[in-house]
Design brief:
alpha+beta; two-stranded antiparallel sheet
Length: about 55
């Protein structure tokens, strides 16, 4: 019974460590948006808008 308790305690201690193994990049992954030719990304509308040049 003591071995089961020790294994459970070890698992609970290591759980946060394993969840942080990914690194400190949580929420910082961004995918670049590409717009078609003749358009540019507008941050205010969060969409591609036509470029008047």
């Amino acid at each position: 019974m003591k071995i089961k308790t020790a294994v459970a305690a070890l698992a609970l201690v290591l759980a946060p460590t394993l969840s942080l193994a990914e690194g400190c990049n949580y929420g910082k992954e961004h995918q670049a948006m590409s717009c078609a030719d003749g358009t540019a990304y507008d941050a205010t509308s969060k969409s591609c808008v036509a470029v008047n040049a």
